[in-house]
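Thread title: Can someone regenerate the structure for this chain?

I was given the following input by a collaborator and told the matching structure tokens would be attached. They weren't. Posting the sequence so someone can regenerate them.
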Amino acid sequence: MGILAVIVAAVAAFAFGAVYYMVLSKPWMEAAAIEVGEDGNPVNSSDPTPYVVSFICILLVAGMMRHTFALSGIETFGKGIQSGLGVGLFFISPWIFINTGYSDRPWKLAVIDAGYATSAATVIGAVLTLF
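Best answer:
Regenerated them for you:
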């Protein structure tokens, strides 16, 4: 059941990301300086590579979170949400801010991306405790 929980959690976080970035597409593309075509979409939007890499990375995060949850005895839905939130806020988001700061990118980009990382980790934590 562990691998199934990890896959479902990764799919849920990826799907959440699709909605999150659709809602915030314009400010995110502006902050990230994404080149857009005449149709207003990113010029590389037909390239599947970023989506494949993203899903693999989310799968790795979900797998490690499951492992950590098992070692820590995190089994309830409430603890899954709390722990996922903590992973996003205190592990992932600070690294996003570090990378943003050193790459001289707009802080707005860090806020948007860290918001997704925190939310997605919370979704993963919730889903992992449902299985």
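The mean pLDDT is 96.
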